[in-house]
Design goal:
single chain, alpha/beta, Rossmann fold, globular, nuclease activity, PIN_dom, metal ion binding
Amino acid sequence: MIFTAVLDANVLVPYVLCDTLLRSAEAGLYRPLWSSKILDEVRGAVSRVRPDLDPSRLESRLHAMNAAFDGALVEGWEPLVEGIELGGDPHDRHVVAAAVRGGASAVITNNVRDFPDPAMERLGLHTVSPDQFLLDLEDLDPRTMVRVIEQQGADTGNPRMTPIEILDSLGRAGVPEFAAVMRSHFA
């Protein structure tokens, strides 16, 4: 059975990071999940950090995500929220509810501290930073991750980005250790 993880909104907002995570899933390294509430948080965050972005472009991207990953949009998580005891930020309970409902093993988030280990372990979940998650994927299948980065660069606009430029962007997007390890594949 393939590893399944909920992607929190904060790892879906930096486009380059979201792209790498989704390409890794597309390559079969894991199964991504999210909820309508997580996507609403993405909308809010993008409107704050990129007020110049046409909202229809973001909607198109979110629609494409749902279309590309059948079953990634977890439904029926709402009744579980009230029973989730995190001890961290109560606003993050919906993320855990989606993970439980979707049968995930982990939540991938930049806010690891908001998902305390004891509370998560009681639910059979663990919390992983995107940096550590991508490092784990690289350790699992380095060749596939090299192809992911190469293709990500090849698919960028004009001019195309090199793999090193993609990795530089990823380093700035919050996954510096992954970017550093991946650079060794392109040296």
